[in-house]
Amino acid sequence: MTSTGSSKKLQKLEDDFNGGDPIDLTPYQNVLAMAGSMGFNTEDALEAAIITGTKDNLQLITDYIFLGPDDKKKRYDKKKAESQKDIKLSPEQEKAIEELKKFHREIQQEQFKINQLEQELTERQAVTKLEKCVEYLRGIIADEVITDAETQALEKYKQDNNIDEQTYVEALSKLDLTLMDVTDLQKK
After folding, report:
1. How big is the chain by its Cα radius of gyration, in Å?
2. Which of 61-65, 102-106, 124-128, 139-143 has the lowest mean pLDDT?
3. How far is it, in rounded angstroms, from Cα 121 to Cα 6?
4. How far apart, in whole angstroms, are the C-alpha atoms of residue 130 and residue 135?
5. 2: β partners
6. Beta bridge partners of 24
7. DSSP states of 78-137
8. What is the three-class DSSP state of 2?
9. Which of 138, 122, 133, 123 minimizes the C-alpha distance to 163?
10. String of b and e for 14-26 (b: at least 16 CB within 10 Å)?
């Protein structure tokens, strides 16, 4: 579970403590749920968890939340400085990170395109299957009689081409027929 960056406070936490990337909320899940049950919002509880360095101590989180604005700001700024002090990247490393982020975005875009194409292919195959079924049925009912041999051939066609009942009924409707009409044509 990652944060969505939906609030300004959450975005500030992401910028200050996670390089602008969404924060993985999974490690904080339990403490955020407990804080939420006490009426604290997720952003305040997450800030408190990050600043106090805890993922399970609700007392530290509530103590931080109840601090005055000046004390909160001091602790926030101190933790921010500590977290930024830990990460000193060379310009080459920063460039590499930006390039990786760019590649990640491009991969996500391509995956989205692939998913769209797969969905479109599935839809087109379904339409093609329906159209083929309609034409097969048109051939069978051309003489307005469905013989036993044609009935057997139709059942085999449905089985071989994975024609489900819904597709079959839809194909019949495209020919202005119902299941009852087919039964009548078989009786002739």
Report:
1. 32
2. 124-128
3. 34
4. 9
5. 24
6. 2
7. HHHHHHHHH----HHHHHHHHHHHHHHHHHHHHHHHHHHHHHHHHHHHHHHHHHHHHHHH
8. strand
9. 133
10. bebbeeeeebebe
Rounded Cα distance between 133 and 170, Å, is 9
State residue 42's pLDDT score.
87
Phi first, then psi: give them for residue 146, nearest 5 degrees: -115, 110
- Residue 7's nearest CA partner among 55, 45, 56, 61 is 45
Angle between helices 69-86 and 8-17 (to 10 degrees): 40
- Report the distance separating Cα 45 and Cα 51, nearest Å: 10
Give me 13's structure tokens: 């936490």
d(CA 124, CA 117): 10
Give tens-digit pLDDT for 36-81: 899 999 899 999 999 998 888 889 999 999 999 999 999 988 888 8
Q: What span, in angstroms and rounded, lies between the C-alpha atoms of 49 and 146?
A: 74
Q: Give the closest residue to 16 by CA, choosing from 72, 81, 67, 74.
A: 81
Q: Which of 82, 87, 86, 79 is nearest to 46 (CA)?
A: 79
C-alpha to C-alpha distance for 13 and 22, rounded to whole angstroms: 9
Q: How far apart are CA 125 and CA 71, in angstroms?
A: 64
d(CA 41, CA 24): 17
